[in-house]
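Backbone-to-sequence.
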């Protein structure tokens, strides 16, 4: 009987979930129910899936509105009707046009016009699929209207938006947030009615007792609607199932690709390789994943044709077929990658290929996918109301002063001291938190389907310019829709740009083949960068934690790096296994202490679980679980299960099997706790190996072309550290850093020999339009000869010109900055507006005699700090106090367990919450010679000696050592004073 029900996916309107709606219907004896969210189909698939659990027949549709004004409700007769409704909504969503008063002629959907709308429009002509919806409240008006005679067209239209007065209050608050208005000023037209609740079936029939034909019409309407999607075990993959014309042709293509490309990966393939290829091809064919491989291959082929660099990772990196045809660059034979982690007969979903491209190339790749394939859309993600944010929004809605809102959102208050309004803010903040707020785009998911996208969902058109469905990954997988992961990252952009920079800065060199990873892995110079912690700028291995781990492990090969990139993850690290791994790596005799069964299962990692595959191996070989059950554990620890009950059942079987095998309880518990510690953090081994390949490519460039590589790092957003620190690293590599220059610099940073010119993009206040004018003028008519010449040729305000002069962008004139500033003021005549029109004749400039005024390097440094955000000189040169006796980083290992003083420039600082709840601080500094040292600030020190931003610090503490890696436990620290800014004196 209910044809117009809302969930909270009627964004900032509805007040409960689609599952709550089903529960409400069951309470009220409703057996058929329509979900019609406002201009949204986010909840439809899950609504259909969950309806079976409540023995309710689901119907789906859309409540078409302009703002809060209802135009009509569309109900899908069947799946084709749902597709029609989705297409219609999407058309208006994409074009940002209003929903019309009159619905189009849907072939497979019913249209219900609200009674009030029909009255206002005086509509008297209705098609066979069109009806008039009347609520219980509106029945009193019906006898006095012409529509009392439209008996066959009248249906029950009892809207359901709220359940109670509390819901109504929450609804009004959501509407006020949506309209950005005070609650007291919210228009009634923006709200639902307090009567928009679900009545029991009995009470609904009582309300319409005088109009039994309306009840009959509604029942007939609902009986004519049906919707079918298949979920869970009944689902079938909905991805594009055929790449060529037939599945047979697809398999022949994949088989041929493997045969023709095999020798490019294995010059002399052995029996093990050939057997693995045959086994994988058979499994891929049997499980119908051939098209999935070919579509990924197509994307990679296009990428290579454009000279883009990619990294194929995820569980797909466990596949020898993926390796041979070039989707991944990880050899599963070399790494003994667990085939069943990649694909096994228990797996209903396709294997997971995460393909990374440069952040600069990713949009073109996405654009190619949309043009190349027919039914394509981006996957959505829901952004929910976070508690602090919703408290702030509600504070504004209630008209609270900013100070009170700040206090409530920070949590620094006593509940007993709150007034009534503040208490309401907290009460409804707690209710609304977790509600969907708006739909956004999944970070990497692209859908390529057999059926049209509108068969499943309406689409939005976000700023990225690609249609995006209205459901998330979980719902997608439930119905058999599996995403292709196309990611963008800056590490690959650094590699690609570094190669381009080397090409123009070192033209005498032959082209670089960055795919020679096998050669890089065996290069002692590259491996020395790893084990000495000198990988700054290299993807994934540059952070302080990774740098320290490399030194502790003395990592100097590919397999060591693969392991290190996994053991640093919180799961392994938090369980204490990271420490144990380091011990067994550094002291081979300790490996004998491992449990012999675990050591036999995981010899490469000394009997310690490091990768997701290890969980499968241990569950299968140690505890006797089937591979399907083991995969439940693996998915559970990745946070990918939909139900914890399934995970708990496998846990119970794991423990029972161990007991049956005669293991001691303490051993079983120890192994199980290792598995649990992985939750949400563990990497697949192939995933780590893919990262390691990219790291080696970066390390090769850092080792042999450090300056060009560091310029590429600077031009691609850096990485773990600030731009200032990458400039420091560039200097350590022998680079000569120059501030921007109007005759040399570009928008990005450029290099000429060893001289590096910072890009105009580093000048925070310099307008993009000014940069464009400078570059285009210089490109068309050559270098600027003087400041006068620049002023004649470039339209620029005195404020913008001052920025360029102060950063010394006119140093080629050999005149002081102060003289140039005076000259600029005289020439531009600040009070007069300058025309943008080019001058027909060159103006004769007057020359002014100015006294000689010099500037100090301190003034230069302060100008740079203001304009760039950091000085280009060494911070130690700016210290305004004498340094006491201290040591350098190279002396640390001779002062172990002693207290020493080091002076260092702050590079990075981060907080860590210990298991006991106490706060620790970890910092990284560079000493006078530019070498790194790390400090640990325990709780008392954190509070007593805070770190206040960049600068030089005196660090006094005790030298500690862990596996030959020294750090400093801080006793006290103090920031040193810098020379005063002389510009104001």
């Amino acid at each position: 009987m209910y044809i117009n029900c809302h969930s909270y996916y009627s964004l900032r309107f509805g007040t409960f979930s689609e599952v709550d709606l089903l529960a409400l219907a069951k309470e009220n004896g409703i057996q058929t129910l329509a979900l019609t969210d406002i201009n949204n189909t986010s909840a439809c698939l899950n609504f259909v899936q969950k309806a079976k659990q409540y023995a309710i027949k689901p119907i789906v549709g859309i409540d078409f509105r302009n703002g809060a004004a209802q135009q009509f409700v569309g109900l899908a007769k069947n799946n084709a009707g749902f597709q029609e409704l989705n297409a219609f909504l999407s058309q208006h969503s994409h074009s940002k046009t209003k929903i019309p008063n009159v619905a189009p002629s849907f072939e497979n959907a019913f249209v219900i016009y609200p009674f009030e709308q029909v009255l206002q429009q005086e509509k008297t002509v209705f098609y066979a699929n069109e009806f008039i919806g009347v609520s219980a409240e509106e029945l009193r008006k019906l006898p006095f209207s012409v529509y009392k005679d439209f008996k066959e067209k009248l249906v029950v239209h009892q809207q359901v938006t709220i359940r109670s007065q509390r819901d109504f209050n929450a609804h009004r608050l959501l509407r006020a947030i949506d309209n950005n208005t005070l609650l007291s000023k919210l228009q009634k037209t923006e709200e639902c009615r307090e009567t928009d609740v679900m009545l029991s079936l009995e009470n609904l029939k009582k309300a319409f007792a005088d109009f039994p034909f309306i009840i009959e019409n509604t029942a007939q309407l609902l009986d004519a609607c049906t919707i079918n999607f298949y979920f869970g075990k009944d689902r079938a993959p909905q991805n594009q199932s055929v790449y060529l014309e037939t599945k047979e042709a697809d398999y022949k293509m994949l088989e041929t690709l493997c045969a023709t490309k095999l020798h490019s990966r294995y010059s002399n393939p052995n029996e093990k390789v050939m057997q693995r290829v045959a086994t994988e091809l058979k499994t891929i064919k049997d499980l119908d994943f051939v098209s999935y491989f070919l579509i990924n291959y197509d994307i990679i082929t296009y990428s290579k044709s454009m000279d883009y660099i990619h990294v194929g990772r995820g569980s797909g990196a466990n596949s020898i077929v993926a390796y041979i045809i070039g989707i991944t660059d990880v050899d599963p034979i070399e790494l003994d990658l667990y085939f069943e982690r990649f694909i096994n007969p228990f797996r209903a979903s396709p294997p997971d290929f995460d393909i990374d491209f440069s952040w600069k190339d990713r949009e073109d790749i996405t654009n190619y996918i949309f043009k190349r394939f027919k039914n394509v859309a981006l996957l959505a993600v829901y952004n929910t109301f976070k508690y602090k944010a919703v408290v702030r929004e509600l504070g504004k809605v209630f008209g609270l002063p900013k100070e009170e809102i700040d206090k409530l959102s920070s949590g620094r208050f006593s509940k007993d001291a709150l007034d009534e309004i503040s208490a309401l803010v907290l009460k409804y903040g707690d209710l609304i938190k977790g509600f969907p707020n708006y739909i956004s785009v999944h970070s990497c998911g692209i859908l390529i389907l057999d059926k049209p996208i509108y068969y499943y969902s309406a689409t939005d058109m976000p700023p990225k310019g690609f249609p995006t469905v209205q459901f998330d990954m979980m719902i997608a997988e439930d119905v058999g829709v599996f995403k292709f992961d196309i990611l963008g990252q800056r590490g690959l952009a650094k590699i690609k740009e570094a190669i381009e920079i080397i090409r123009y800065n070192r033209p005498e060199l032959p082209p670089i083949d960055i795919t020679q990873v096998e050669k890089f892995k065996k290069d002692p110079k590259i491996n020395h960068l790893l084990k000495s912690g000198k990988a700054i700028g290299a993807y994934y291995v540059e952070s302080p934690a990774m740098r320290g781990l490399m030194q502790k492990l003395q990592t100097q090969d590919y397999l060591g790096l693969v392991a290190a990139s996994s053991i640093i993850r919180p799961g392994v690290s938090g369980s204490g296994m990271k420490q144990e791994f380091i011990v067994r790596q550094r002291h081979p005799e300790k490996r004998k202490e491992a449990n012999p069964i675990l050591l036999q299962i995981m010899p490469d990692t000394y009997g310690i679980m490091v990768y997701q595959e290890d969980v499968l191996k241990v569950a299968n070989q140690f505890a006797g679980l089937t591979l399907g059950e083991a995969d439940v554990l693996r998915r559970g620890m990745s946070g990918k299960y939909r139900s914890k009950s399934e995970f708990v059942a496998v846990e119970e079987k794991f423990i029972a099997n161990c007991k049956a095998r005669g293991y001691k309880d303490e051993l079983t518990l120890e192994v199980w706790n290792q598995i649990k510690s992985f939750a949400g953090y563990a990497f697949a081994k192939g995933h780590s190996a893919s990262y390691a390949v990219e790291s080696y490519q970066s390390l090769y460039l850092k080792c042999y072309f450090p300056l060009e590589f560091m310029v590429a790092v600077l031009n691609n957003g850096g990485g773990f550290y600030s731009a200032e620190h990458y400039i420091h690293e560039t200097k350590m590599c022998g680079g000569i850093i120059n501030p921007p220059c109007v005759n040399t610099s570009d928008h990005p940073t450029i290099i000429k020999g060893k001289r590096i010119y910072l890009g105009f993009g580093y000048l925070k206040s310099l307008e993009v339009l000014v940069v464009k004018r400078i570059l285009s003028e210089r490109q068309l008519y050559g270098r600027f000869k003087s400041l006068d010449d620049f002023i004649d040729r470039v339209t620029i305000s005195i404020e913008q010109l001052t920025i360029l002069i102060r950063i010394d962008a006119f140093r080629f004139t050999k005149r002081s900055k102060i003289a140039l500033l005076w000259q600029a003021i005289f020439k531009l005549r600040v009070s007069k507006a300058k025309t943008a029109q080019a001058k027909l004749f060159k103006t004769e400039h007057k020359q002014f005699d100015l006294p000689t005024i010099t500037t100090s390097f301190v003034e230069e440094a302060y100008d740079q700090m203001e304009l760039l955000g950091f000085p280009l000189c060494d911070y130690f040169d700016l210290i305004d106090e004498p340094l006491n006796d201290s040591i350098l980083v190279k002396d640390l290992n001779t002062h172990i367990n002693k207290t020493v003083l080091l002076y260092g420039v702050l590079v990075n600082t981060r907080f860590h919450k210990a298991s006991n709840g106490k706060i620790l601080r970890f910092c990284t500094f560079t000493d006078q010679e530019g070498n790194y040292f790390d400090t640990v600030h325990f709780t008392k020190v954190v509070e007593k000696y805070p770190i206040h931003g960049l600068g030089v610090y005196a660090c006094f503490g005790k030298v500690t050592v862990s596996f030959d890696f020294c750090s400093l436990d801080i006793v006290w620290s103090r920031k040193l004073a810098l020379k005063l800014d002389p510009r104001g004196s």
